[in-house]
Amino acid sequence: MAKKQFKAESKRLLEMMINSIYTQREIFLRELISNSSDAIDKIYYKALTDENLTFNKDDYYIKLTVDKDNRTLTISDTGIGMTKEELENNLGIIAKSGSLAFKNENEAKDGHNIIGQFGVGFYSAFMVADKVTVLSRALGGEEAYKWESTGADGYTIDEAEKASVGTEIILHIKPNTEDDQYDEFLEEYRLKSIIKKYSDFIRYPIKMDVTTHRPKEGSEGEFEEVKEEQTLNSMVPIWRKNKSELTDEDYENFYMEKRYGFDKPISHIHIKADGAVVYNAILFIPEKTPFDYYTKEYEKGLELYSNGVLIMEKCGDLLPDYFSFVKGMVDSEDLSLNISRELLQHDRQLKLIAKNIQSKIKSQLQSVLKDDREKYEKFYASFGRQLKFGVYNDYGMNKEVLQDLLLFTSSKEKKLVTLDEYVSRMPEDQKYIYYAAGESVDRLEKLPQTELVLDKGYEILYFTDDIDEFAIKMILNYKGKDFKSVSSGDLGIEPEEGDKDSKEAETANKELFEEMSRLLAGKVKAVKASKRLKTHPVCLSAEGEVSIEMEKVLNAMPS
Ligand code: ADP
Ligand code: MG
């Protein structure tokens, strides 16, 4: 068959990957093992839910085979396999997720960072192999196909023979060069340690014929070399393990392995609940927003397992919208395998789990806020807006959950503060929580309306995000203190000179004020003498519920 070209973007990525000086080549194995595991998950699930299929647990495994003479490493699995079309579609172009995330990881300009940390699925095979052969037979068919590629120049697909359903990936390991060593990927001990590091929790056995030495029969002190099949992974899923056995690195590896994100999460939550509802969960709070996060395309949700079997990839009902950034998985024995999406929505167990998870996320965020402010502020830069939307969208119903997680820039040192920090250092005579809404802190600082408040030594929250003021309107008050815009008519501050001056000013300049009103007719409601200005000659002030800034946002909204 004629060689087919890879789609353009995969070609670019492949070339970059192959050419980059790459320190963590070993992750190719994690990628291929995880694909095999996914493929076995699929067939396992089919067998559990389809009466016509019967399998033994022993039927599911992944096997590594090393052939040093031919320099090949083969990863075979008894998974669901791929049809000819699937070979074309799945291996011929880069999975959507991979390529998009790649484009958005702008910071890692040279590319090798991204690959180094996250891998790009199947393609990572080309980091260690100069030729990759994939032999696959899909469930339900007799025919098998062979996909072969030597890298960026394309691939071929031909008919082939394969005795059983599943996939075999044969990596033709590159020869060593002066700068790069590849021999290690043909060494048993090295493969063993890579599996232990990245794939220990894979639920199916990863087997390999390992060379061992045993005393030679009939001779003293002599040993002979034998091959013995060993299972390299412990197969205990990470969420079933004890937290004490696990390191931060284990969780981070899991996050990457699972492709929850391409960043390094700021925090993880490992839940082992055995109260009213029994479940295990591992949740992550990402640091960076996924590229589509603030778009309609973004789909929230956690992976849902029933007793170790993946039943849903994105269960949205487990997360409230305001925590839609959370990634991770939930495994519960109390859920049925065959449950449909619709039934799941009404599942009592699931509701309990969701509620539980929500409060765990909240307290985790609070403890990050308390213990590692810098980390929290990174998180907040990515997802703070979502929290504020959360307050606003539900008409303040969730303000109890969210208000203590909010940060705003304060006039004091221009640092981010919580509402609690603001209120707890308010002078006794301060009645309100003051805020000023506008485009940027720089501009707000120059706002004449802030003068009097700042002069009194009161702090002002600078709202520079258009959602800020809307969210605050939903919170209404915090610890008994109402919010007050610095541009509102009554600031609740007694001016030192009293009312007399402004009254006098108004009578004395009656004509001037009338003329100004006439000129600004339709633009302002009234022109009055102000009690709040110090150095500025004039300022705008609002009387109603809607501030000038909010009006701007509302006017800009498509109606
Ligand atoms: P991802 O795993 O993120 O989807 P990959 O590049 O790792 O991306 O794999 C692409 C696709 O190829 C997989 O989604 C799967 O459909 C298919 N695939 C890869 N390896 C196997 C395998 N061993 N068995 C069956 N399908 C596979
Ligand atoms: Mg994969």
UniProtKB/TrEMBL annotation:
Subunit architecture: Homodimer.
Keyword Cell membrane: no
Family, per entry: Belongs to the heat shock protein 90 family.
Protein name: Chaperone protein HtpG
Residue numbers binding ATP: 31, 35, 77, 82, 90, 96-98, 117-122, 167, 341
GO cellular component assignments: cytoplasm
SUPFAM superfamilies referenced in this protein's UniProt entry, alphabetically: ATPase domain of HSP90 chaperone/DNA topoisomerase II/histidine kinase (SSF55874), HSP90 C-terminal domain (SSF110942), Ribosomal protein S5 domain 2-like (SSF54211)
Histidine kinase/HSP90-like ATPase domain span: 24-177
Gene giving rise to this polypeptide: htpG
Organism field: Paenibacillus faecis
Membrane-spanning intervals of the chain: none
Physiological role: Molecular chaperone. Has ATPase activity.
